[in-house]
Amino acid sequence: MITIGQLARYVGVSTKTIRVYHDKGLLPEPDRDASGYRRYGAADAIELIKIRALAEAGVPLARIRDLRAAADEDFQQALREIDDGLTARIRDLRATQGRLRRLAAGELSPLPTEVTAFLRRLPGWGFTSRWVDLQRDLWILVFATHPDEAMTLFGDQDEILADPARRQLFLDYDHAHDLDADDPRLDDLARRIVEATRARYGPDELPELDTGSEIPALVQGTVNAESPAWRRLDTLIRTRLKV
């Protein structure tokens, strides 16, 4: 028979923890001996080890108390469910660890190979490195925040840039970055973009400017913050599309 301090050392918990288990009804509290000490046996140590294992698995103490009083079949089923939960947690932790390691390596988020190949084509088409960097950051943002919709959005832009005439509008948009906000060339570019948009969608299928989705606002807000000229260009396009 051993004291509470010895039991705590053997099992690897504190005496305070054992007393909490007594108070919660998880571990029976033995009677005191003639010297006034509570003495614990091997069965107490085994029970304490089981309780500690469940607690370390994240099982609430109230649930542990119920499990300790459950029939063996119910107890085993509960252990299987706890094990499945731990497996899922481990999988999520490993995914988080992978993201942390990519972050440490300077990779905020891995992009699909289609997007990476698309970004590599941009300089060859005449886009500035500023535009390529902005596009990369935007796609990282979209894929991280809206993974279910990101590939559809990317496919749409990839299709647009595959057309040389429409690609030229994006090139002009890129090179308008350094223009003054009141430069008349912005009015002409906005007119051409609106005409191309109307030609693509038709008068009855123009894209909604305010769809309720966070993605367009998220992307356009990031673009507008880069340049006063881009911000005015966005205003001109929105105004003309509403006419």
From TrEMBL:
Top-level taxonomy: Bacteria, Bacillati, Actinomycetota, Actinomycetes, Kitasatosporales
A Pfam family per the record: MerR
Domain HTH merR-type intervals: 1-70
Entry keyword set: DNA-binding
InterPro entries: DNA-bd_dom_put_sf (IPR009061), MerR-type_HTH_dom (IPR000551), MerR_fam (IPR047057)
Coiled-coil segments on the chain, per record: none
The protein's name: MerR family transcriptional regulator
